[in-house]
Structures are given as C-alpha cells and as structure tokens.
Amino acid sequence: MNVKNFIVGGIVGGIADFLMGWLVYGILLKDTFPKPEGAGAENMLFIFLGCMSFGFLISYVFSRGEGISSCVPGIKMAIGIALFMGLCSNFFMSMYKETIDFKLMGIDILASMVLATVVGAAVAVTNGKMK
User: Does pLDDT of 102 surpass 90?
Assistant: First the structure.
C-alpha cells in the first residue's frame, strides 16, 4: 500500500465528503431530516471527523486492495460501499423505533450514495495523479 496516496486521498476524500454533505444534507435535504425533539446544536467536529473517516475508508480500499486510480471505477466502488454502509447504519438506527419511515431511509441511503460518487471520484483521481 502506498501510504502517501492513502493519506492524501483520505484527506481529499474527507474534505469532499464534508462539503458534499453540507450541500446535500445541510441545504438540499435540510427540511427532510428535521432535528429530533430536544436535540442541541450539531457538533461540527464530529461531523467533520465522520466525513474524514469515510474519506479514509474509501482511500484505504482504493490504495490497499483495489489500486483504483481513475474516476469511473472509483465512483462504482464508492457507490457499492456507501450502499451497504447506508443500509447498515439505517438498520441499526431503526432498531428501537416503533415505526420506521422507509421513505426517509431510502432518501438517506440514496443521499449517501450521491456523496460517495464525489468522494470516490476525488480519491481515485488523487491516486491517479500521485502515481
């Protein structure tokens, strides 16, 4: 594994995820996912760390196992990862709910996949330029 590609790709992917998340969840879907009753302000540090974690996950997969360094394969791989991560997190978040809104679950999974296209492309192109 090329450590330099992993680190730079992870940072680029994390920043891309943060910016796309702000656009998709913070602006476009702001009214779709209202805050739970009694919730405080968002902790931007943890949002940023979550985005960086996803960027580094994608970078790790691309650098370690797949060697992905071009846009289209990066998008395809990242969409697959986001699909299963979205399913996993939505199923776990729903385990204590009495009623499950499958429409919101589907919107969240699709939004995750949209974000992943940008992250996957960004990490793949970064890897390709650093060869």
Answer: yes
